[in-house]
Automatic annotation (TrEMBL):
InterPro entries: Aldolase_TIM, FAD/NAD-bd_sf, FAD/NAD-binding_dom, NADH:flavin_oxidoreductase, OxRdtase_FMN_N, TMADH/DMDH/HD_second_a-b, TMADH/DMDH_FMN-bd. Keywords: Flavoprotein, FMN, Iron, Iron-sulfur, Metal-binding, Oxidoreductase. The lineage of its organism: Bacteria, Pseudomonadati, Pseudomonadota, Alphaproteobacteria, Hyphomicrobiales. It comes from Labrys wisconsinensis. Residues 507-604 form the TMADH/DMDH/HD second alpha/beta domain. In the N-terminal section; belongs to the NADH:flavin oxidoreductase/NADH oxidase family. The keyword DNA-binding does not apply. Its cofactor is FMN; [4Fe-4S] cluster. The keyword Iron-sulfur applies. It comes from the Bacteria. This is Dimethylamine/trimethylamine dehydrogenase. Residues 10-338 form the NADH:flavin oxidoreductase/NADH oxidase N-terminal domain. It is an enzyme of class 1 (oxidoreductase). Its EC number is 1.5.8.1, 1.5.8.2. Residues 390-487 form the FAD/NAD(P)-binding domain.
Length: 698
């Protein structure tokens, strides 16, 4: 299919200094949890984006020197010549598919605890580092020699980036990770020399770094400046008006302006807290300050919104991190007029958790993300079935839907049976909870794809038994029957059922999602799960008028959501809605009129008045069908059944991302001939250096 002419503007080339991008789709720098540990996997992931049509594909922030070391995070390094081959591998992989390669140089300044290098961090002033773990490390104020050193390191790193083949080289002053932002900030920069005070002085370092980079590599490389346009903390922070003054001051200096909100949690807000395109008010008008192209983000998945932002003069280039993660082929799909095939980002930030846990990036919508090289998975392609076989998938949750879709793409004849009328499993239910409607895209995308596959039959309202499965006469059955929340309090903290008085009202999240509500107006929620469910149910019930107390053994609500950068927003929202939060408390007893909680440190008891309690602790896999089928093993051969495999939450309850991954994995591995002793994926092991140990014979 040809592309809709409405979208032609998205495919216009744009000049970025001495280089030209083929279109306006611009993958802005983003972290990935692979970094210098998994360079070939990282290069392959970036190459797939280039193959998918992005005009520019950037690295994550790349450290330029050991004095700006953000260990334990494993972002790429460009410290010296040893790093060039690794950087070149990425640039080459991107070039192989016709995209420009961008590299984001970063010296993290006061954000760098230097735990690996043990160098003393530096910044505008003497202050503790602004690092994620509140490390007991203090930065020192830079002196004249430090400025000279920093500028030299930055220049050398730019030259190495050019030698590695990059087309665009960044100077980074965004999100407080780019050390130059600490200088721009009035909060941090209280210097009285030529690098502090008025705006011109605070912008001096950034100006020098841009000039140095232009001078070093500007003949062949576009020089981009990534800058924060607001910290969202009011007048005290770098705010919109001031950011505009800085951009106006440096307007024509870089070849491209890349606009972000600071810090990262503001830039990459989730769908629970921000709509697609939410950055528009912050970036509108900036193009009027410069003739250079401007790129901005906003979780863009709708080409109409992209076109509108370009036509109305908000942006020149459509920046994307998450939409390019969820669908590396988004530009190609727009180009080929296949909008219904776009796998839209759901805005859950599971991708961010990869970086925060220093493990390869993963994505709820795109299970191949991070697995392109490790497992050889491609977001759009999958090998054809080795032989024609028939597969029955039981359960149309994220795991079953993904398995059915990918088995269908492989060419198997597939039947997908779902107990209920609605496809989507847990997603069909959870999408109705406050703030989670975009998560429904997990089901919508797959349901839409299945509709176009003639060899995949979908059976709704089909609650299958083992007998039904044997009657189907299929060779393989996938049991993706999901899980149910426990009702006994057992979870991380409680390993035995919580004592419960007869007549007490105990609900699970499944009950609440089924519409069950307690008779009284007071509810306690015990959250020992720590992801979204406890906080979301608190929000739901308080909005319905219940007086809600949320107790949790953790230090704060939805504690794991630090990994998705949402925890502070969840807590703020619940506090604003009037939810009482009792942190550091476990549940010790449930009574008819309330629950008893105990401080996790002192065991001091607190009574909480509540007409009902909702237990958000752990889930039980739905294994009954698998057990029933196992008990009929003697009948398998006659029925033609060769394998029965339990996947997703039915095997071990986890994230939606894990369930989708499980579905993909089943589809990938069916009929695969494997060496039993081989690891399930490839890895890259660091080469050993040649030469003697420091103390031969010691
Ligand atoms: P996952 O996250 O692993 O995909 P879900 O709980 O989201 O798991 O989905 C499981 C789906 O399986 C639900 O939609 C449920 O209705 C369905 N299901 C469970 N048991 C059966 C069964 N015996 N026959 C058909 N569908 C079933
Ligand atoms: Fe979007 Fe979630 Fe995928 Fe991240 S993990 S790209 S937020 S769908």
């Amino acid at each position: 299919m040809a592309r809709d002419p409405r979208y032609d503007i998205l495919f216009e080339p744009v000049r970025i200094g001495p280089v030209t991008t083929r279109n306006r789709f611009y993958q802005v720098p983003h972290c990935n949890g692979m970094g210098y540990r998994d360079p070939t996997a990282l290069a392959t992931m970036r190459a797939v984006k280039a193959e998918g049509g992005w005009g520019v594909v950037c690295t994550e922030q790349v450290e330029i020197h050991p004095t700006g070391d953000i260990a334990p995070f494993i972002e790429l390094r460009n410290w010296d010549e040893q790093d060039v081959p690794m950087l070149a591998r990425i640039a080459d992989a991107v070039h192989a598919h016709g995209a420009l390669a961008g590299l984001q140089l970063a010296h993290n300044g006061m954000n760098a605890p230097n735990l690996y290098s043990r160098e003393i961090p530096f910044g505008p002033v003497d202050l503790p580092v602004f690092s994620i773990y509140n490390d007991p490390v203090q930065a020192r104020a830079m002196d004249k020699a430090d400025f000279r050193d920093l500028r030299r390191w930055h220049r050398d790193a730019a030259l190495r980036a050019k030698r590695a083949g990059y087309d665009i080289v960044y100077v980074y002053a965004g999100k407080l990770f780019g050390g130059a932002m600490f200088f721009l900030s009035r909060r941090y920069n209280t210097r009285t020399d030529e690098y502090g005070g008025n705006l011109e002085n605070r912008a001096r370092l950034l100006k020098e770094l841009i000039e140095d980079t232009k001078d070093a590599v500007g003949d062949t490389c576009g020089v981009a400046c990534r800058i924060s346009v607001d910290e969202l903390i009011g007048e005290e922070g770098l705010h919109a008006a001031e950011a505009r003054d800085i951009i106006a001051h440096l307007a024509e200096l870089p070849d491209l302006w890349d606009l972000t909100l600071s810090s990262w949690d503001n830039d990459s807000q989730t769908s629970r807290f921000a709509e697609e395109g939410f950055q528009e008010p912050f970036v509108t008008g900036i193009k009027a300050l410069t003739t250079k192209p401007v790129v901005g983000v906003g979780r863009f998945t709708s080409p109409d919104l992209m076109v509108r932002q370009i036509r109305s003069g908000v942006l020149d280039l459509i920046g994307a991190a998450r939409p390019s993660i969820a669908d590396p082929f988004l530009p190609k799909k727009v180009e080929e007029g296949r909008l219904e095939d776009i796998r839209e980002c759901i805005g859950c930030n599971i991708c961010v958790s990869g970086d925060h846990t220093m493990t390869p990036i993963r994505c709820t919508q795109n299970p191949s993300m991070g697995e392109e090289w490790r497992r050889g998975w491609h977001p759009e392609r999958i090998r054809a079935a080795a032989s024609p076989q028939r597969v029955l998938v039981v359960g149309a949750g994220p795991a079953g839907l993904e398995a059915a879709m990918m088995l269908g793409r492989r060419g198997y004849e597939v039947a997908l049976a779902e107990k209920t009328r609605t496809l989507g499993g847990r997603v069909a239910r959870e999408r109705l909870l406050p703030g989670l409607s975009a998560w429904g895209r997990v089901a919508d995308y797959r349901t839409g794809q299945l509709a176009g596959m003639s060899h995949v039959e979908v059976y709704r309202e089909s609650d299958l038994t083992a007998e039904d499965i044997l009657d189907f006469g299929f060779e393989h059955v996938v049991l993706a029957t999901g899980s149910r929340w426990r009702a006994d309090g057992i979870g991380r903290r409680l390993l035995r059922p919580v004592p419960c008085e007869a007549g007490a009202v105990v609900l699970t999240p499944d009950d609440v999602m089924d519409g069950v509500r307690p008779a009284g107006r007071t509810v306690a929620i015990y959250d020992d799960d720590h992801y979204y469910m406890g906080g979301v149910l608190a929000e739901l019930l308080v909005r319905e008028g219940f007086a809600v107390t949320l107790l949790t053994p953790a230090a704060d609500v939805s504690n794991w959501m630090h990994m998705t950068m949402e925890q502070h927003r969840v807590q703020a929202r619940l506090l604003e809605l009037g939810v009482r939060i009792l942190a550091h408390h476990g549940l010790t007893a449930i009574g008819r009129g309330g629950v008893e909680a105990a401080c996790v440190f002192t065991d001091r008891r607190t009574a909480i008045e509540a007409g009902a309690v909702v237990l958000v602790t752990a889930r039980l896999p739905a294994t009954a069908l698998a057990a029933e089928l196992g008990a009929r093993r003697d009948a398998w051969a006659e029925a033609g059944l060769r394998s029965a495999t339990t996947i997703g939450d039915a095997l071990a309850p986890g994230t939606i991302a894990a369930a989708v991954f499980a579905g993909r994995r089943y589809a990938e591995e069916l009929d695969e001939v494997r060496d039993e002793s081989a690891l399930p994926f490839r890895r890259e092991v660091a080469g050993l250096v040649a030469g003697p140990m420091p103390w031969p014979g010691g």
